[in-house]
Amino acid sequence: VAMQIKAQTRKRILSWCGITLLGGIIGVSYSLWVGGNPGLAFTAACILTGAVFGFELFYVYRPAGIWLRSLPLPLFLAISSLIWIIIVGTSLQVVPLFFGFDQAYGDTYSASTFTQDMSFALIIIFIVNSVLRIRSLIGSRVLKNFMIGRYHRPLREQRVFMFLDLANSTPLS
To answer: What's the average model confidence in pLDDT over 52-68?
Structure first.
């Protein structure tokens, strides 16, 4: 018996894969910028991005994360930021052990490199997560129209508004 995946879950999985791949590409770009190993950076960035956005898409935006979403915005951002820091820090500490960063960097993967990598990862994650949060608040269509500048160039439109009051319509409804 084949298990059917809901359309919304399929959309979340595709979004997660796309964001993870985008994270890998950003990781490679960052690696080329700082003189690292692009292959290892792609792996680390995909794992890091997949973990953070997996948490976001499959926990925060699901019924299990309703307690977090119902908090006041500053508290919600503080708790989710703390969780991101834990995920990013753990990923940057554990991934080098399993994927051979010590062989690629030698002894150069120091505390300053870790701090630089962590800062870069958190900045990128914060930017992308801010866009996702804004999208969840105002909707993707409004965000897209705002980004392309539609609301910066207002258009004059003629609209028709009709108010209709039928006799005895309350009992009918």
So the answer is: 89
